[in-house]
UniProtKB/TrEMBL annotation:
A Pfam family it matches: AKAP7_NLS
Keyword RNA-binding: yes
SUPFAM superfamilies: Eukaryotic type KH-domain (KH-domain type I) (SSF54791)
Organism: Sphenodon punctatus (Tuatara)
Key words, A-Z: RNA-binding
Gene Ontology cellular-component annotations: DNA repair complex; nucleus; transcription regulator complex
Protein name (database record): Activating signal cointegrator 1 complex subunit 1
Ranges of residues in domain K Homology: 56-124
Amino acid sequence: MEVLRPTLIRIGGRVYRKNLIQEQSYQNAEEEDFCAGPGDCTDEPCDAFIVEETERGFQCAVDVPSPLYKYIIGKRGETRKRLEMETRTSISIPKPGVEGEIVIRGQQRGGVISARTRIDVLVESLRKKQPFTHFLSFALNQPVIQEKFLQFKEERLESCFHQSDYGVSSSLFQNPSKLHLTIGTLVLLNGQEIQKACELLQKCKEDFADKITGGRSLAVEVAGIEYMNDDPAMVDVLYAKVHTKDGSNKLQMLADTLMERFVTSGLMVKEWDRVKLHATVMNTLFRKDPNAEEQNNTTAGKSDFKERESFDGRNILKLFGNFHFGELQLNSVHLSQRFSTDSSGYYTSSGQLTFS
């Protein structure tokens, strides 16, 4: 069935079929040969990018973040050599750590297009395997919410001593200064990509954010506890539910439309049909790393999941299932930087959309 229904990769308005190939280990990725072979994509000429005619033939330039250069070069340069040989081109790559353009040159226009297409598909595939660097978020760390969260934590730990719940400890709880609602995660590998995301945020404000919110902040309530798996006795994540006070779908609509716009732009990978409006309050990832974030669907995320030690959440759900964390006004969306902290204790913001 995988052959009949191959994965589709969207790049710059084009759609490619990705043939099924054997997965490779990415632990030593910089030494592996990740060549997009002849069967990996269709080298159809198109006008989605510019191919210039020169005195010696044709050339095309493509922006690729410097952290991905090593994959295009491959082990001992084998990936680049194979691409050059199969497309009869020469591929110039900037030095490691230097942001710039990869330039493809060849005597035949079709060869240059073929090499460019294969590099595009290779980069898109590799990008999906990178850990996310940023995420779109609503900050939920206003003082009233933090205070109620600390109350929840204190009461939960106190009851835990009497109930002897398996696996529950203070290390599982979220940092109250970083309480948030995640819209989606992004892999932004250089300053240009961060700038592109910031510009898209402002475009979203103009196109639909102000219309959805009416240019006013959204009154929301954080209340109720839910879990993310099928067995409450073996839980990895507990989260607080978030909803608008007036019962409208404005918050859901804003989150979903933002996700769709960023997915369409290629900056975000769509994981769910709708954004789950929730705020993580307990997570087994915090047990080993207090600064850990919820993983997106990456190889790293799967690895972390296997190492988790679940806890028994039945008593928490019974005693605190309707816990009220408070109400607040949401008026902005942040492009938050993973593994960072600003002066307020929240994540450092690389960009922001304000709708009131």
